[in-house]
Design goal:
Radius of gyration: 33 Å
Mean pLDDT: 85
Distance between the termini: 59 Å
Low-confidence stretches: 64-68, 478-489
Order of helices and strands: HHEEHHHHEEEHEHEHHEHHHHHHHE
Structural class: alpha/beta
Helix content: 40-55%
Strand order of the largest sheet: 5-4-3-6-7
Shape: extended
């Protein structure tokens, strides 16, 4: 760092070696000051101004005045206008238990033949006792023919393959508790013993996991082919501990489809192994990450992430343009909801106005955050500030940031992928990680199946039973694509 000219003028009569030493100290102080600012910036990161999860914020009380979440301002309990849900008496109870007085409370005479003049009803809703496990014995008879003398044997059902085994409904319940309700294997075994009265070992549950995933490969192939046909998909990834090492779980999804893929790498090697983006021609919605941008499809960035980064830029720079840009993005979001979601085209003058104001705010930010001065005395590139990098990215990728107001099918954020990936993170918080890679891979496929059938309003238990019986629920690629692409023509808003 160079000494300012006003200080140099006061050091004219100072010996050169002293000036050199002061210059050295000034440079050290400058580098330390930049390092301190960088460390303070890292300490101030939280879920509001970065991509860090809310769980990393700790237990400190949040500042409601600065919160972007309007829900923080709500009081506990039901909100005004909320229709409460409570128990209502059933007109057809399963059991009726009368309570009649035997004697008069006053004269102590018998009331056996007296007439009832009033009945007051109170109903208790409860669960029946745990069901008794039904054991079905299959007997394959071998019979000798009276005519030719040869023997013919009956055939067992296709899914009855062992002398003793669990039925498809028990296997479906266990898989549902483990992979949808995220209950660990040992606790699932305890739950089955306490509620249903049968014992099952954690090792058997692991075997059921692999058996279920083996019946879902045709489903996975169908979902991958369907995703390649979609006009808009969402992409995201998260870290996963498998066999003590860091792996990556990639999610590719739409409103009706979900596909999880476990990969040892996060970048293009992992994405290429999945094979969706390599043959995709639609719009990929994701966070700003360079590996996604390597693919030739159209891209759209999550504006919720951008807003958090703008909050950080505002906190670090104390400038006004970040808050104005946040207001502009939220205004554009409201504009989309009022038009695209109601089958209307946003008037071009409103779209042009948003883009013009966007460009003006970015230029204001660039002017207030000039690039670092390049010095010829020191080799290498000087590190830019976070705010400067953010501004250059928002300027370079303007079309991708604002694509949601141009394309009716493109959403404002990438929340769909984040919601799909959230339950896997919950699983990691409960269990910590996977000891075996193949089990983790099987769980990812089962989660793909459960998430997809849930999105299509299919009963999860029945869908799992069908998969165990080698008849899994399969999405219809053409019908699904038509449902998303053959939209009602948008009307011009006048």
């Amino acid at each position: 760092m160079d000494i300012p000219d006003e200080i140099k003028s006061k050091l004219k009569e100072t010996p050169p070696e002293v000036i050199e030493y002061i210059t050295l100290l000034h440079g050290i102080i400058g580098s330390m000051d930049a390092r301190i600012k960088e460390l303070e910036s890292r300490l101030n990161l939280n879920s509001r101004n970065s991509g860090k999860p809310p769980s990393s914020d700790g237990y400190a009380r949040k500042n409601r005045q600065n919160s972007q979440d309007a829900n923080n301002l709500k009081k506990p309990g039901g909100q005004p206008g909320h229709k409460g849900k409570t128990l209502h008496q059933s007109p057809n109870p399963d059991h009726i238990q009368p309570h009649k007085p035997e004697f008069c409370h006053f004269c102590r005479k018998s009331l056996e033949n007296a007439n009832t003049i009033k009945i007051e009803k109170r109903q208790v809703f409860d669960l029946p006792p745990p069901p008794h496990i039904e054991i079905t014995e299959h007997q394959a008879h071998t019979i000798r023919c009276n005519h030719c003398g040869k023997k013919s044997s009956g055939k067992f059902p296709q899914d009855v393959t062992k002398p003793v085994q669990y039925g498809s409904r028990i296997r479906a319940y266990v898989s549902y508790l483990t992979h949808y309700q995220l209950i660990p294997y040992e606790r699932t075994a305890e739950l089955c013993s306490d509620l249903f009265g049968f014992s099952i070992s954690p090792g058997t549950i692991v075997n059921l996991t692999h058996n279920l995933s083996e019946n879902l490969h045709h489903f996975e192939e169908n979902v991958l082919n369907s995703l390649k046909c979609e006009p808009v998909i969402h992409n995201d990834e998260t870290g996963l501990r498998v066999e003590g090492k860091l792996h990556w779980l990639h999610v590719t999804c739409t409103k009706l489809l979900t596909h999880y893929s476990l990969q040892s790498k996060r970048g293009t090697d992992g994405i290429n192994a999945i094979g969706v983006l390599t043959n995709f021609n639609g719009v990929s919605v994701h966070d700003f990450w360079g590996s996604y941008l390597a693919y030739p499809c159209k891209h759209s960035f999550c504006c919720a992430h951008i807003i958090r980064e703008l909050i950080r830029a505002e906190e670090e720079s104390s400038q006004n343009w970040p808050s104005k840009l946040i207001d502009l993005l939220l205004e554009a979001k409201t504009l989309k909801e009022a038009h695209h979601y109601n089958g209307l085209v946003i008037p071009q003058n409103l779209v042009d106005n948003v883009k013009k104001r966007y460009g003006e705010l970015i230029q204001t930010g660039l002017n207030e955050n000039p690039p670092p001065i390049i010095r010829s005395a020191k080799r290498g590139r000087i590190k830019k500030t976070f705010t400067r990098n953010l501004l250059e990215r928002l300027e370079t990728w303007k079309c991708e940031v604002l694509r949601f107001i141009d394309d009716p099918l493109v959403p404002f954020d990438n929340n769909l992928a984040e919601r799909d990936i959230r339950m896997v993170k919950v699983k990691m918080k409960i269990s910590g990680g996977f000891r075996d890679y193949f089990t983790a891979e099987a769980v990812a496929l089962i989660r793909s199946y459960i998430s997809t059938v849930r999105k299509n309003d299919v009963n999860v238990i029945e869908a799992i039973i069908g998969a165990f019986e080698k008849n899994p629920w399969i999405t219809k690629c053409k019908l699904l694509s038509n449902k998303l692409t053959e939209q009602t023509p948008l009307k011009v808003c006048t």
